[in-house]
Design brief:
single chain; about 400 residues; alpha/beta; TIM Barrel; eight-stranded mixed β-sheet; about 15% strand; binds iron/sulfur cluster; binds zinc ion
Length: about 400
């Protein structure tokens, strides 16, 4: 692939151009949202380094991502869901949390499978894992003020684990200690999208480099228990050793950003997963197939016949080939089987999706040997013949 010169970016044909298009596309959205209601909340199950947990996932409605206000990532429609005006008060954010707790109390137990971990097996059981996303960065104090972060940590201090989403620039050991000092194992979910800087910059329009992701992993690890150095010397701060819980990073990768052909996207994911798994502190990789969200550049391309979400076979291929990587690797295809989501032929999508979910919990690649469909030959053809210039070869 040829490399653009630094001048190309300076002449406004790099990020500036992407941002300009994204601002224009987003401006077509004129909906507004209630600041006292979370964007979404649901119960599910998740694989963690400590086993499978019942999880409560919360999408808090905040002022939204700063980067999205500048234009933002080519596939991201989340900002379309955040509150007008750029900020939500502490009281409103805590009201959103109250609504999420009510949802949990009313629905827990209904879809839990035997063996998944909760905080208690009695009638008051609670999800052992809380995941909070904000359509932006939980650790950005313009979205979630320090006071609110502390109050949320206190609210969930009776849980085992938390995941909070953040861009790497806001990841700071002192902020994470709000959680780890209360004994909650904490993971920071970083939307890295790909380990390849060129793809992250030019296809996703995300501004940071892989080395900033590595620095965020260092911060997260420092917030938790400092492990003793390998030569057997004592950890630097022994008091932390006894009271703080571990912290780590969960990398979120984007399978098939716009402008990448199917085989290039598959190769990029395989490489990215291995690179992330090799970073200390990054114990989980979540590979998210791109879907077509409203008010995004991806949607524009999709309407003009220039984008097809990834095949589910591609997800299977990546998961099977990286099953030996030193990290938990999961994928949760959203909108599977639909035209706007990752899909195969329409006949086998549910079956293949089930195999992927099964892999998420068991990490056993043999689950993929049990699914087959005639459309796999079409996918193989796409993998052999699709290029950046003729995509999508098959819709
Ligand atoms: S993907 Fe993340 S960083 Fe990019 S615009 Fe969306 S919320 Fe912001
Ligand atoms: Zn099929």
């Amino acid at each position: 692939m040829s490399q653009p010169s630094p001048d190309t970016y300076e002449q406004g044909r790099g990020m500036d151009a992407h941002n300009e298009v994204m601002r224009e596309v987003r401006a077509r959205n004129d909906k507004s949202y209630d600041p006292t209601e979370p964007t979404r909340v649901w119960l599910d199950e998740d694989n963690t380094p400590d086993g499978v947990y019942q999880s409560l996932t919360i999408i808090l409605n905040t002022g939204g991502c700063r980067w999205a206000r500048a234009g933002g990532c080519t596939m991201c429609g989340y900002v379309a869901e955040s509150v007008d005006g750029g900020s939500v008060s502490h009281d409103h954010l805590m009201t959103q949390i109250e609504h999420c707790l009510e949802h949990e109390a009313e629905n827990i137990g209904e879809q839990r499978s035997p063996g998944s971990r909760t905080e208690s097996d009695d009638a008051d059981e609670k999800a052992g894992l809380i995941k909070i996303y904000t359509s932006g960065s939980f650790l950005d104090e313009r979205e979630i003020p320090a006071e609110t972060r502390d109050a949320i940590a206190e609210t969930f201090s009776d849980r085992d684990r938390m995941v909070v989403e953040s861009l790497p620039d806001f990841v700071d050991r002192e902020k994470i200690r709000d959680f780890t000092d209360r004994g909650i194992k904490t993971d920071v979910a970083v939307g890295l999208e790909t380990a390849t800087d060129r793809v992250r910059h030019d296809a996703v329009n995300k501004y940071f480099d892989f080395e900033e992701f590595e620095a965020a992993c260092v911060e997260a690890r420092a917030a938790g228990t400092e492990r003793a150095p390998p030569d057997g010397r004592a950890a630097t701060d022994e008091s932390r050793e006894t009271r703080a819980a571990d912290a780590g990073v969960k990398a979120y990768l984007l399978m098939k950003p716009p402008f990448l052909a199917e085989p290039d996207a598959v190769e990029d994911m395989k490489r990215s997963i291995r690179r992330c798994a090799g970073v200390d502190g990054c114990h989980t990789v979540s590979m998210n197939p791109c879907n077509v969200q409203r008010y995004t550049m991806v949607e524009e391309l999709y309407h003009d016949g220039g984008y097809r979400p990834p095949w589910l076979w591609s997800i299977c291929e990546v998961l099977a080939s990286t099953a030996d990587a030193d990290a938990i690797v999961v994928s949760d295809p959203v909108g599977h089987g639909s035209d706007r989501g990752p899909h195969n032929c329409g006949e086998c999508d549910d079956l293949v999706q089930r195999a992927i979910k099964d892999f998420d919990l068991r990490q056993d690649p043999s689950v993929f040997e049990e699914v087959s469909c005639a459309c796999k030959d079409t996918w193989k053809y796409v993998m052999a013949e699709e290029t950046t210039y003729n995509q999508p070869l098959v819709r």
